[in-house]
Amino acid sequence: MRPAQLTALLVLPLFTACSGGESNKDPVAEAKFQNEKRIGGEDITAKQERDAEFMVTAANRSMFDLEISQIAKRKASSPDVKYVAEAVAGQHGPMQTELKTLAEKKSIVLPASLGGDQAKQVGELTALNGAAFDRKYIELLEETHKKSVDNFDDMSDDAYDGDIRAFAAKYLTTLKNHLEAAEKAADQLPK
User: What domains lie within the chain, and their CATH numbers?
Assistant: First the structure.
């Protein structure tokens, strides 16, 4: 084999691995891009853009909370943490379904799976066991729910679209309850 052929055989896999193929795209960024592309082609206001951004963010956080709660239902060692995980998983499923239905009605693209950062956090959480797992799960849950409560509170008043405003108002109390339950469970965990 000639050196040029050998070089080509060695370099080709590198180009393939580095190409921006579909599997390398972050689902959240892709959903935002698709919405911006659609919005850019229509006569849509900044408030409608904000509504779409809220829907994508809400879907991503809800998927994340649902996934980590499903894991916590199996792995949590604290009964309080298991209880929180069951409540969150039980209520985020219907919320996620309603969110998808609303997005379809409004022609808003939602992420099909978790974004890269969230997927990494799920992997890190899954690697933990016992009290370390319980603390990390509750920490992640508190973090996402604080952000979600702020977003849903804002959008329950400020969303341009009435259906999106009603969705945010409907689930705001649920998210506040989850945050409160997570904070109580955190207080019960050994430091």
Answer: 45-188 (1.20.1260.10)
